[in-house]
Amino acid sequence: MANRYPLCGLDVFKDYINETTTDNDTFNQRLINRASRQIEAHIKRNIRARSYTEYYDGTGESGKLFLNQWPIQSTTSTISIYDDIDRDFTSTTLFASTDFVIYKDEGIVELLSDASLGSWFSKGTQNIKAIYTGGYDEFEIVTGSNDALDFNEDGSSELNATLDSGTYTA
Asked: What pTM was computed for the model?
């Protein structure tokens, strides 16, 4: 089964296990894909950036929306936030990009006090629709801070990997 969002590239994995042939590429890619799915299932969220469409219940008492997949990669120009109790989600129920702010690292969208459709989301069931990109797409590695990974393969021998400092893409 293909995984569009593996957490490691085949070339990186092969370098780690010191494999230079292509004989096991299919097996290795399946191993990477399975491990990626299991990691995300264990932490109950996706890691790599991807597009999401989510629906939320409005309380009628809050102008904050807590999105499920953070950090938010979308900007106010590329995220779509609707509030429609009829659930038609047309252009008349779409907030303008100037109606809210995004707190990317926290995964929060907050309506401004002068938002065109109001500063609170309407009370309703699944009346709020958010279309956005969330997850990690770049990683900054800092020497001595987050550059080391420790593994324990068989319960007795410890393996260590160190990354060079810099910015990496997913």
From this structure: 0.73
